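Researcher: Please translate sequence to structure tokens.
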Amino acid sequence: MDMKTILLKELIKNGHENFGPNRVWDIASRKFLYINEEMAKGFMGLRNFDRYKTHILGTEISLIKKNANILSDTLAKESFNLIDICCGDGSKAVEFIKSLNPEVKIRYVPINSCDYLTNLAVKNVKKANLKNVVEYKPIISDCKGSTLNKLTKELKLGTFKKNAVLLLGSILASYEINDYLFQLSKDMNKGDFLLIGNGVRKGERLVSLKTYKEDIFNKWFFNLIKNLGFNEKEVEYDARFANDRVEMFYKIKIDKTVNSENLKVDFKKGDEILTATLYKYYSEEFEKFCKLYFSDLEIKEDKTGGYVLVFCKK
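Model: Translation complete:
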């Protein structure tokens, strides 16, 4: 199935909502942000965006290194599957693995919605020459909280009886947090481990809107709109605060009908297509949500108070 058909099916399934005088169509699913090589490379472009490089990537790696003793104590002896949800290029998994007891055997399981990123993650973990990584099992799947449901039995066959799950890069900010953590926790077994990395707020909840209007996001998200059949002159990228979250979207500047196979959507001038959303949480809120699903947890905050690592054990 080609990308246009996939996206049209999603639009028709979700329908549209009214936002003032405009209709808002929704393809803001995290899986679409990495669904093919073009989208995955758009995501990797964020690593050249100073705010992402400093406040997410750099902060997470620093927190992992600083709290390596927690990881090493928690995952000290038994072999396990390291499940890297929305894996990126594997660089954070490398730092995680470096912090562990080198005698513990690991099967690395990068998960993403296209093989460009899972293959890249495997390549970079192999390149790091980590002797405790003895197997690789890249998996093409979405990044939902229910992802583990179809993997747990398969992964725990043989040597690797435990799962350690990485949910880094503020992935959780793209989802409804209660549902995600519920789905994830119910498929974890006693002794399994989860590491969450997520941005948190101090002061006002929704600030710095101009950050999300940066052209780096347009360059990434426009690939979806292009696959629907729009060109750059027919749409305009924008971002706003609405529905207690950041919404990134395209406003359509013309009437246009988009067809693929037996599917058709009639867009009107002024319609909007939602491509990504981000929820913002205060530190105490984030801790409260995690405690609903994990009784054994430890939270470490970076020195600015804008990012947390949450160590959860089932």
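Researcher: Any highlights?
Model: The chain has a mean pLDDT of 90.
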